[in-house]
Automatic annotation (TrEMBL):
<dbReference type="InterPro" id="IPR010982">
    <property type="entry name" value="Lambda_DNA-bd_dom_sf"/>
</dbReference>
<protein>
    <submittedName>
        <fullName>Transcriptional regulator</fullName>
    </submittedName>
</protein>
<dbReference type="GO" id="GO:0003677">
    <property type="term" value="F:DNA binding"/>
</dbReference>
Length: 67
């Protein structure tokens, strides 16, 4: 999972539905990507970076594996 990205989405009050819309993907796909079940594409990473211009990508995409 991506705890920093999830926290930033919550801080900006961006719902999973809105996040999915901004990326041009389904809400289910967005949930799977945020959970680390499927990978983000490069184009999606670029879009996410533009959504959070004050944050570094390595911070946003810090990944924690579920144990």
């Amino acid at each position: 999972m991506f705890p920093n990205l999830t926290a930033e989405l919550e801080k900006m009050k961006i719902s999973t539905k809105d996040f999915a819309f901004r990326l041009g993907i389904s809400e289910r796909t967005a949930r799977n990507k945020l959970a680390g079940k499927t990978e983000f594409t490069l184009a999606e990473v670029v879009k996410i970076g533009s959504m959070f211009p004050d944050e570094k990508l390595d911070y946003l995409f810090y990944f924690e594996e579920n144990t």
